[in-house]
Give the backbone structure.
Amino acid sequence: GQQVMQIPQYQHVQEGEDFTTYCNSSTTLSNIQWYKQRPGGHPVFLIQLVKSGEVKKQKRLTFQFGEAKKNSSLHITATQTTDVGTYFCAGPRTGNQFYFGTGTSLTVIP
Amino acid sequence: NAGVTQTPKFQVLKTGQSMTLQCAQDMNHEYMSWYRQDPGMGLRLIHYSVGAGITDQGEVPNGYNVSRSTTEDFPLRLLSAAPSQTSVYFCASSYSDTQYFGPGTRLTVL
């Protein structure tokens, strides 16, 4: 079955520093989704990437989809305390199931 | 639209008790699923449904039952609660490859 690996598992940064999380799939993906889960909250959809090499931006967040469509990254520029949470990637529905990465928990130190 | 709703928000059970976690969505999504989230374990799929009357097992189905009599509702039943089922449970519905999560139920089994 599809496997989606995500690194790092945890990241602590000083407020204002940049942050990046990486997602790698064992298979080629038709698309990839990113979600954010605030502490005590539920995962919330952020964005979907579909095209090879696609780059999308949401304010300080930059999402990339690899040329081979097997990896993706989320980069946050100049982190703020509001960025705290766990970031998950997920592949498309495959065999009627979604496969999530294990998530990267981001702590921002004021 | 209320999106995906879950009840209760919190629940404490004794070992051996049974209960039903409720999930409803008003987006007319065919696909619904249940996940459990434990510290450091990410989101693990319990059961899913591709439409009314159709359900199937996910990664960790043991100890749980589901049914899907309507498009809107997808309850999760714990047959005989065990301490290992202490977790946060999320219901999600999906359109295409984007998932919408409910706020979760925090379950403690003593």
Summary: Chain A touches chain B at residues 9, 31, 33, 35, 41-45, 48, 88, 90, 92-93, 96-98, 100-103 (CB under 8 Å). Residues 13 and 38 of chain A are 16 Å apart (CA to CA). The mean pLDDT of chain A is 95. DSSP finds no helices and ten strands in chain A.
